[in-house]
Amino acid sequence: MATPYAKLPAWADYGLIPLINLVVAFLVAGLVVLLVGESPIQAATLLIKGAFGSGAGIGYTLYYATSFIFTGLAVAVAFHCGLFNIGGEGQAYVGGLGVALVCLGFDTVFPWWINFPLAIIGSAAIGAFWAMIPAYLQAKRGSHIVITTIMFNFIAASLMVYLLVGPLKPLNSMAPQTRTFAVDAHLPKLDWLLEMFGATIRSTPLNLSFILALVMAVAVWALIWRTKLGYEIRTMGFSPKAARYAGIGEARIIVITMMISGALAGMMALNPVMGDQHRLQLDFVTGAGFVGIAVALMGRSHPAGIVPAAILFGMLYQGGAEISFMMPNISRDMIVIIQGLVILFAGALENMFRPAMQAAFASFSPRSMGMGTAKREGA
Amino acid sequence: MDTLVQLLDATIRLSVPLLLACLAGLYSERSGIFDIGLEGKMLAGAFASAAAAAATGSAWIGLGAAIIISGMLALVHGFASITNRGNQIVSGVAVNFIAAGTTIILGQGWFQQGGRTPSLPPAARFGAIDLPGAEAMRDVPVLGPIYSDIISGHSLLVYFAFFMVPFTWWVLFRSRFGLRLRAVGENPAAVDTAGISVTWLRYRAVMITGVLTGFAGTYLALAMNAGFVKDMTAGRGFIALAALIFAKWKPVNAMFACLLFGFLDAFAIRYQGAEFPMIGRVPVQLMQALPYILTVILLAGFIGRAIPPKAGGVAYVKER
Predict the structure, then answer these.
(1) Are residues A26 and A124 in the same domain?
(2) B110 touches A: beta carbon within 8 Å
(3) Helix/strand/coil for B281
(4) Could you tell me which chain B residue has the CA closest to the CA of A353?
């Protein structure tokens, strides 16, 4: 997104400003901790200990981060095209349907290494379809994509409740979920990866989709900065007028970008459904689609920023669970506040500290201000 | 007849929070500030009113607290989108999350009831009011039940909400402030040229939004229910947004849109799993999704065309 201010060296733009935004977000979150009568410093210590203090902690942190990488990339791809995809939550939810259909259909037929690519295709296809409708409506009928994707989140939720209390539920069961998949539709765990680094663990939900998430991060980088399509997407996001003038088909780019975005969001379902719970449950997304917004904003829509941002939020998720053991007043919902504050400071208020930063830079080294502009990649 | 009366009575009760939130959004969006944070402001207002009412035992103090808290969140949104020219959608999303998280954490921290506030006694709530002559009218055929069962017997906030409809119409289309408000949403540069502050005008609009969402939240916590339950808005802020679009940003249309969505809700609750002639059993989830589906269809221009205020979502940059 273009800003009227941007004239800072790249390291300040991509490193310092997000860091300042993050620190402010945490300070405000600390105030909330104070308000319920606990010590913010003790909470922060517990958080870090819970997230990184043990092998199992690291495993859980990376397990949550996996989901956030997918949804963060999904939001980021749309951002590059100037589109705000709030529908990641719904796209991931219906993506779970794609995973479940593959797993329920083939879990006794194929081994996992055939089921895995099939489930990737299934989740990506349904996620992409769910994003395609709002995209088409935006491109051809001019309806606002933010509103339509919000509506599609609710429609997705209703649809999935309908399917899980009805057609997908085994006959003899009361719980709104599918049957448990057979072993051949379980993704391999990545415990060996953690043990390689010397951690000893019993079992964590970290699974193969973590690797897939990293592969997708590289793929998104290549797509956006190294392909013709990526160039068209960025042009469209930077200036729709220029894109039209250059002969880039507006409707086509919007629909394709949103389908890629929806596919990435849909793939998020692989992690919990095929990697951990081995069945499709109600509300398995648990807000990961929305966390993706914060992750993409903090990572400045670049995969190299999104992966650490996702790990940070994974840490908050896992550490937050740990805090709630020790401080019953603070539940995991603390992360929702932090998420909101990060979206506020890194997204809506991203320009708040910029004038001050510019003044500071200008007084220290006037020359660095001019140099930074040339290297800026279109964020 | 009896079921119809009950259904319409429920329609009124369910559409009031939508209506208050919808009118709230109307002021902001007419001034050119998109607000998808209605949900969050309503939720924070509901919590504030329930917490204050539980602490003081007064519904009015609850209402005041809700207005202050919702108003503060509205100012945050205003600060981000007017002063800092940030992305209004992003800011609205942030407000929603901050409200969702804070209400749960503070609710648990202060009241220790799993995110609920204590159940409130009648004195700390806005109770039902019987309109004059409601009892006497009851036996009059047709008009009697309409007056005494549907119109009478709601809380003060219900009448306030319906009073706000003509009042908003008057403000918007008959007052100087309203003319300027509409102008700033269509063409802020023209308003600026006329020597009127775009910033101050938009801030006022956003503050009105905050106050009205405070009313909506108070209605949820102190009139419809007896206290705060976590996530009690349950997407109503978004349905209100849908109603606003459905109503093409006009107050009277907004009332009918909210009544329609309220009726769908009441209908879905009443006829869960019932069989209908010709159609068979309609899944309750379809009924719940209907407002959202209708909005999507409307936005796509298949039922008329919803044209938002022209300058909506765009920060105003004064030319130098």
Answers:
(1) no
(2) yes
(3) strand
(4) B84
